[in-house]
Amino acid sequence: MTCLRCLLPGVALLLGSFLEAWAQSPLRVEPRAPERPDLAARYLFYLHGQILEDQGSEAMHPEFGRYEYDVIVRSLADSGFSVISELRAPNTDPERYADSVTAQVRRLIDAGLPAHSIAVVGASKGAVIAMLASTRLSAPIRYVLLANCNDWVLQRFPLQLHGEVLSIFETTDSIGRSCQSLFDRSPSLGRRQELSLNTGLRHGFIFRPGPWLGPTVAWARGGF
Questions:
Q1: 173: phi then psi, degrees, rounded to nearest 5
Q2: Rounded to whole angstroms, how far apart are CA atoms 223 and 200?
Q3: What 3-state DSSP class applies to 119?
């Protein structure tokens, strides 16, 4: 496990460059993977938390505030990715949605896109979907799991991860904990890393771009 404090200077520099480009770069966000992808591009699937299923794009939590979905996907697009993200329907079944994500990833690879040019980032319920996609896909996709490793998830779903996986969790979050036990039971898992944050924001740390963004982008690009 890596302490985020050691990475803060580089993360701050990276995040600053994204913000500087905010008003200049075009928004590249689509709900589904293209049939004919740009083979020189990097594609990133962003899978949001459940509150957006329940309330839509203006979701507001009584303790954590607004889930800034548009700001998050814009930040990811401005960091150089073609972002694939859609607002899921209420009560979306995570296994069925993981099947959809898996099919889209395979379509990109079948079209000639290298697996290392694809990243899947999941937050809260979206992290469960990302875990399921990683279980289904043997290709060396890069994944970032935000805030949903816990005993219930690990007992409920038959998970064995593949690819390259970064776990980011907040020490004050009662929902998302360390993914180390999941790493340990995934013998085919490739490169893996875990970061712990201490923002005091509990599960709300995923509701807006923050200290998780820089490491997520770096990992999706193959860094760390």
A1: -85, 125
A2: 27
A3: strand
Dihedral over Cα of 220, 216, 141, 101: its sign: negative
Residue 160: helix, strand or coil by DSSP?
A: coil
Angle at 161 between CA 109 and CA 206, to 5 degrees: 90
Confidence of residue 8 (pLDDT cuts 50, 70, 90): low
- The region that residue 112 occupies, defined by phi over 0 for left and psi between -120 and 50 for alpha, beta otherwise, is left
Give the CA radius of gyration of the chain.
16
Q: Strand order of the sheet with strand 118-123?
A: 2-3, 192-197, 164-170, 142-146, 118-123, 43-47, 82-84, 29-30
pLDDT tens-digit profile of 15-64? Answer: 555 445 444 444 579 999 999 999 999 999 999 999 999 999 999 999 99
Give residue-wise pLDDT tens across range 70-117: 999 999 999 999 999 999 999 999 999 999 999 999 999 999 999 999
pTM above 0.85, yes or no: yes
**Rounded Cα gap, residues 168 and 196, in angstroms:** 6
Separation of alpha carbons 11 and 213, rounded Å: 8
